[in-house]
Amino acid sequence: MHTPVRFTREMAFSRDEWLRALPEAVGAYPVSVGEGAADVRIGRGGLSLRWHAAPARRIALLALPRLMVNFEFEGLDAAARDAFMKRFDLYMHRGGG
């Protein structure tokens, strides 16, 4: 796995769902949350998260919420970014069987 320093993801979360899931996803790392933004301290570096709502994805009568989330790491090498994202992705995973 190679986690880039900056990337954007489309995530199937409403704003409220995202805010409920975020503390568990970052684990023991301190996080400060504001409107549409969060900063996570990871050792001597960190992660800046910025998000905004996108139109729902519609499949027939089903409407899935969407957030566009920008990730920007600072002061972390590739191994540290990969380790953080492995846990983050595990907690943010959505899906069925």
Describe what this molecule looks like in 3D:
With 97 residues, this protein is an alpha+beta fold. Helices cover 28% and strands 45% of the residues. A hairpin with a 2-residue loop joins strand 4 and strand 5. Helix 1 (15-26) packs across helix 2 (78-92). The mean pLDDT is 94.
Sheet with most strands: strand arrangement: 1-5-4-3-2
Which sheet architecture does the biggest sheet show?
A: 5 strands, antiparallel
Supply Rg.
14 Å
Count up the helices: 2
SSE run: EHEEEEH
What's the rounded overall pLDDT mean?
Answer: 94
Share of helix, binned: 25-40%
Number of strands: 5
> Uncertain runs with pLDDT below 50, 5 residues or more?
none
Gap from first CA to last CA:
24 Å
Structural class from helices and strands?
A: alpha+beta
Quick one: overall form?
Answer: globular
**Proportion in β-strands:** over 45%
Short description:
This protein is α+β, with helices and mostly antiparallel strands and 97 residues long. Helix content is 28%, strand content 45%.
Task: Fill in the keyword field for this structure.
97 residues, 5-stranded antiparallel β-sheet, globular
